[in-house]
Amino acid sequence: MVKTISARELREHWINKKEIALIDVREEQRYSESHPLWAISVPVSEIEKKLPSLVPRSSAPIVVYDNGEEYVGRAAARVLALGYRDVSILEGGLYGYSLVGEVYRDVGVPSKAFGELVESINHTPSLSAGEVKSLLERESDVVVLDARRFEEYSTMSIPRGRSCPGGELLYRVFEAVQSPRTRVIVNCAGRTRSIIGAQSLIHSNIPNEVFALRNGTIGWTLEGLELETGKTERVMQPSLESSQKARQCADAWAEHVGITSIDGVQLGQFAAESEERSLYLLDVRDPEEYALGHPAGFSNAPGGQLVQATEEWVGVRGARIVLYDSDGVRARMTATWLLQLGWEVYVFEGNSVPDDLQVPRSPLWSVAEFGAITVENLQALQALKEATVIDLARSPSYRKGHIPGAWFASGPELARDLKSISGDGPIVLTSPDGVVAAMNLEDTRRLLSREILYLAGGTSAWVAAGHSLETDSRWLSQPIDVYKRPYEGTSNARKDMQGYLDWEYGLVAQLANDGVAGFHVVRDRRGQSGRSK
């Protein structure tokens, strides 16, 4: 029988900086409606796909919870089957936790709450959308740096904006400005990346005046101003002179914050300890640079996004993180924020990773061939009108195109919802590459008496075989698998955007009432002798 852990015991881990991973096994939309601060979203139907990279150490303590949906038993069994050895169920689930701790809405909450705290402590200078528009119309010597991912920038941006993701800001800023008198506006879709990006440049002591665009593209839209779409302008790679300036700025701020650099010997020691202490090796450079070459064992986690959504790469609170770049700027600046967010973080300074580095090995799950059918087999079954195809793709992907006749199903509720399918012929599970379909084969067979198969290679194999997709939707389950973020895309309701901003403004109060964040915002007191951080 799987053991349990109380909410108070869980919170003690966070307060005492002991390692623990808290896994919400519901669909993302349910997670986004209410969850503890340090919970990460791993739906029960995707555990084998998502969990190994998020929790690389098989002996790390893992806690699973739901909100009464009865997923946790299945979830715990699947986590244990991957080889994890310390798995618990949260007593009372989400409701039990809410009796002793704060619960939060949305996603990426720790970073968003931290951003609000940073602004309140540092009084980060900002301008409203109207003020920025007036400034752009009045002056030419102003640069607008969009701190989001390039894809988000291209979807929608403010006039004169150029893509410069948050982790790249200091690294590239001296290529963007014409002179020390050039004003710099940093924007994102909402608040966090604008605040963190602007404050990064301010802490770096660049000579330029820097402002955040208050409330980002949401604020721009709410003031009735027009956004541009399809833009592709990027701030170029820095020259040698620019990168040297940036390195001096990064060194000074990292030293003030207290960032520790390590060499290959220390990295090897950390790797040797990775069975007792969770270790994440992350290359914070731009994805295009990472693809051209990177140190063995390091995953790509662009610095701005790593600060904005740490839980996309790091699932164990209390873990050890080592960052790498090729310039000494991006890793340092990213590290300064992660340290303030309460992480134990280091910058790898070595020229190369030791050949004998014992890279942490994540638990593995391999796709079983038993139960797989080919595209040709599926066609034959469909011709006989015997097979029902169930698609476990994310709902946005399903809407874009799926195998003709396929039904959309929620992975966690798959067995329940399949009972409403009429007939007694075989059910064929598919997903974009077939992996998630294969992962859910055994669970589904255990709960249903019908023949359950999965399509080898998934929907991609169907397309590769020359077959077309359709867009007519058949909803076997409610599409609650993806949370529609009110700060992404161009079709958000005004009330949702305003509601999101109102929620963000209240996060500092929630943090104060909760007591498990472990944040410490460093003030810039350089030059004030005799005073501490």
Give a concise summary.
It is built from 24 helices and 20 strands.
Task: Write structural notes for this entry.
By secondary structure, the protein is of the alpha/beta class. The chain has 4 domains: 3-106, Rhodanese-like domain (Oxidized Rhodanese, domain 1, 3-Layer(aba) Sandwich); 113-235, Oxidized Rhodanese, domain 1 (3-Layer(aba) Sandwich), CATH 3.40.250; 252-348, 3-Layer(aba) Sandwich (Oxidized Rhodanese, domain 1); 372-464, 3-Layer(aba) Sandwich (Oxidized Rhodanese, domain 1), CATH 3.40.250.10. It contains 24 helices and 20 strands. The strands form 4 sheets. Strands 1-5-4-2-3 form a 5-stranded parallel sheet. A 5-stranded parallel sheet has the order 6-10-9-7-8. β2 (21-24), α2 and β3 (39-41) form a beta-alpha-beta unit. α6 packs across α10, α9 (169-176) packs across α12 (240-257) and α12 (240-257) packs parallel to α16 (330-340). The longest helix has 18 residues, at 240-257.
Structural classification = alpha/beta
Catalogue the unreliable spans.
529-533
Q: Write down the overall mean pLDDT.
A: 94
Number of structural domains? 4
Beta-strand content bin? 5-15%
Identify the quaternary structure here.
single chain
Order of strands across the biggest sheet? 1-5-4-2-3
Give the helix tally: 24
| The CATH C-level class name of the largest domain | Alpha Beta
Describe the main β-sheet briefly: 5 strands, parallel
The radius of gyration is: 24 Å
What is the fold-level CATH name, i.e. the topology of the largest domain? Oxidized Rhodanese, domain 1
Assigned CATH architecture of the largest domain? 3-Layer(aba) Sandwich
Q: Quote the distance from N terminus to C terminus.
A: 48 Å
